[in-house]
Amino acid sequence: MSQTKISSKIYPLIKAAVSAAVLPVLFIYVMIAKPDYKLMNAMSHVVIPVAQWVGDVITWPIRLVGGAFDNIVEISSLRSENEELRARLDDALAKKTMCDVAIAENNKLRRELSIVSSQPRDSVIADVIHDNNVLGHNTFIINRGASDNIEIGMVVTTMDLHMAGIVIDVAANFARVRALTDADTNIAVRVVGSEVYGFMTGNGSKYPTIGFFSDPEFQPANGLKLVTSNISGIMPQGIYVGELIDETDVKITPPSKLSRVMVLKFDTQQNEYK
Predict the structure, then answer these.
(1) 45-54 pLDDT, tens per residue?
(2) For 229, which of 21, 89, 96, 190 could close a Cys bridge (C-beta 3.0–4.6 Å)?
């Protein structure tokens, strides 16, 4: 389109706008200089709509910018609210996941520990009468022995079935038990709810250490539960041993806390409970 054609269309619009702008001025002049109410009434039907139209035209950019600003503010508010809701949703989902994991681990632990509690067994209740801890070796004496059918190799636990040691010497009326912290302790264990195996060894301190061998990709973590494994062919499986407090150290029931224990009677040749 040529410049002449564009100008021919714009010029009448400008002329009309100027004429419309003059009308309110004329109306005001009549009101002040020559107040003729009939004329004013007639002009009001023309001037007022024209003035409104002119006002709309003049204020259109301002209203447009104001509306855009209001929309920006509203969008910003919605985005902020959306981010807050999304953060709350992510937090709720994370907590739900943690709860699901905890419930699953708890169920696995219950199934694992039920191996011990559900198997029929004969046990002997004994009192700890002496605790010996010297040069990395930790043993304790119980007041039950061969007269109670206790044999070397039997497992000693706390009253809530947490492993405390292994019988290593037996006399008629007492027996000596090697504690889990003893430097000669070496017990095959398994991580609860998995097929990850390892050996827990005593070192004379209050925390035995563990080394895993069955899964090179396994990452030890605080809180993992350990139970006995029969891969070594020495003791029954499924007896609770302790839990990891870091990558290597295991929290167990310390011998100093033992006063009354149970000796679990099992066939030391077949590694089965009697």
Answers:
(1) 555 565 566 5
(2) 190
